[in-house]
């Protein structure tokens, strides 16, 4: 695998993204983390204090010009990118389709699908040129089977599985890998805001999911490009290969 990997993680200020950043820093990597706001930076930096190995940037992943500039900047600083993890996500509130506003629907699609599309679009040429790299798209169980009153979120997360599969099919040969990770509920702010603290405390930890992702990247769980993995109730419950043509 990679020695001292250069890792980009969107949504690295808290939740699963922060757990992943911590794991990579411990493994000797340099993490360029992004978030939409600075509101969780102080607590993130308390958890990972090495500012050279964990750098936080403000980036709205739904804006193409900003994403393009950000990727060029990392290439300038490090000369390479080894891992991209599209972890930033947005869920909003519970609403049946007929009560969902167009604005909320579009925000779900923008953060959960358009953002990862833009990040992949600008990282793909880097991976293709180096003939290596890992692209990990964080979808959800809601990206495998739709959740009622989370129609917009489910649609975005299903779309992310399709985006991963398309990237894998367009880049055969196994030089770099693009996979989807579909976690079930995790005990993070997103879950607390949606279903309350008691429910969140019953969910698996983001630390567990982060550990499984490290096992994939370091080859202890074998996955090919285009595959997806379901991590639910503290277990790997399915690994699905890339469907054929
Ligand atoms: N929690 C669950 O139960 C669960 C289950 C399955 C899948 N997932 C997925 O797992 C991933 C991580 O979830 P989580 O629970 O750790 O999330 P979280 O705690 O809510 O954190 C979300 C992160 O995304 C960032 N973000 C939001 N909108 C953004 C934008 N437009 N541009 C850039 N960054 C943006 C946030 O930045 P700020 O701090 O600035 O807001 C934050 O860092 C998400 O993709 C989520 O959909 C979560």
Task: Write structural notes for this entry.
- The structure is a single chain.
- By secondary structure, the protein is α/β, with parallel strands linked by helices.
- It has a single domain (6-240), classed as Rossmann fold.
- It has eight helices and eight strands; from the N terminus they run E-H-E-H-E-H-E-H-E-H-E-H-H-H-E-E.
- The protein has an eight-stranded mixed sheet with strand order 3-2-1-4-5-6-7-8, sandwiched between helices.
- The longest helix is centred in the middle third of the chain and has 29 residues, at 102-130.
- Bound molecules: NADP nicotinamide-adenine-dinucleotide phosphate (NAP).
- NADP nicotinamide-adenine-dinucleotide phosphate binds next to helix 1, strand 2, helix 4 and helix 6.
What name is given to the CATH topology? Rossmann fold
CATH architecture: 3-Layer(aba) Sandwich
Structural class: alpha/beta
Give the CA-based shape: globular
Summarize the main sheet.
8 strands, mixed
Estimate percent helicity. 40-55%
Total domains, how many?
1
Radius of gyration: 17 Å
Question: Which features characterize this protein?
Answer:
single chain; alpha/beta; Rossmann fold; 8 helices; globular; binds NADP nicotinamide-adenine-dinucleotide phosphate
């Amino acid at each position: 695998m990679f020695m001292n990997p250069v890792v980009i993680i969107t949504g690295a200020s808290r939740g699963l993204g922060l757990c992943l950043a911590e794991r990579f820093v411990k493994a000797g990597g340099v993490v360029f983390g992004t978030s939409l706001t600075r509101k969780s930076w102080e607590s993130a930096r308390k958890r990972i204090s090495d500012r050279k190995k964990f750098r936080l940037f403000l980036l709205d992943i739904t804006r193409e010009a900003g994403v393009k500039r950000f990727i060029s900047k990392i290439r300038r600083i490090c000369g390479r990118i080894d891992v991209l993890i599209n972890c930033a996500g947005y869920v909003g509130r519970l609403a049946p389709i007929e009560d969902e506003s167009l604005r909320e629907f579009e925000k779900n699609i923008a953060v959960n699908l358009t953002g990862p599309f833009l990040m992949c679009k600008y990282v793909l040429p880097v991976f293709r040129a180096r003939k290596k790299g890992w692209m990990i798209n964080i979808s959800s169980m809601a990206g495998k089977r739709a959740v009622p009153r989370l129609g917009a979120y489910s649609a975005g997360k299903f779309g992310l599985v399709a985006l991963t599969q398309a990237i894998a099919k367009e880049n055969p040969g196994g030089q770099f890998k693009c996979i989807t990770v579909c976690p079930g509920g995790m005990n993070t702010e997103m879950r607390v805001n949606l279903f309350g603290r008691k429910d969140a405390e019953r969910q698996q930890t983001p630390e567990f999911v982060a550990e499984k992702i490290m096992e994939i990247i370091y080859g202890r769980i074998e996955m090919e490009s285009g595959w997806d993995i379901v991590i639910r109730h503290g277990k790997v419950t399915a690994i699905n290969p890339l469907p054929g043509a």
